[in-house]
Amino acid sequence: MTLRVLHPVPAPASGAGAEGHVAAELGTVVEADTDEGRARLRELYAPPAADWLRLNLITAVSGDAAGEDGTSDTLSNADDRAVLAAIRDLADGVLVGAASVRAEGYRVPRSAQLVVLTASGDLSGHRMDPERADRVVVVCPAAAVDRVTETLGPDVAARAAVLVVDDDDGQVAMATLVDRLRSHGLRSLVCEGGPSLAGQLLHDGLVDELCLSTSPVVIGSGLPVFGRERFDPSRLSLSQLMMDDQSALYARWLVADGPATRR
Question: Is the pTM of the predicted complex or chain greater than 0.85?
Fold first, then answer.
């Protein structure tokens, strides 16, 4: 499990003499399966502000969000999972849509809270551990609360938090979602999809950063990584790029006109 830096990583701008320095030189090697390497990944992926919303997604070279099994699992590998773990460790909340919970069997992260957005309240088939359910947050319209309670099951529902938000004909506005989570104390957020949710956040101009893993495969899964949502272009700047031994790429893209630039 070896990652190699292909693009120099700039040091944080604060601090005397920091300007012009780099946090990781070109060619720096990170052994992702060691304690030192895992700590290094957390340094390299640290968000630059307390209020930060990043997307963390994996795609095939063809732009597909699903591999041959119909999920993202067959696009991923051990290095990708190490990067995923580092990003989750740095977040207050891991945001996913209910469809991803049903399709991919999401489990509660080891430190961050798992935030699930659902319009219908249908979380049937979830694999959330009741012992960790105190770190589950479900966001839904008022009309979906009963269905959430039913499909979570009594053990998880008894410990999970349900945040009710205003909706428009069953649909939750993305700005309303983010504001509600921030008021709940979840300031640093990472959205892991699905594609539709990621596309909506981009459409509404709420994303600060895109962490994109690119698996070295082409496939016609029919599931675009940003869904089918149409949105205006946003300019990105590459702040970090690594490659593993299997030629998978791991990029950090800052959104030039993202929320951080408007604060």
Answer: yes
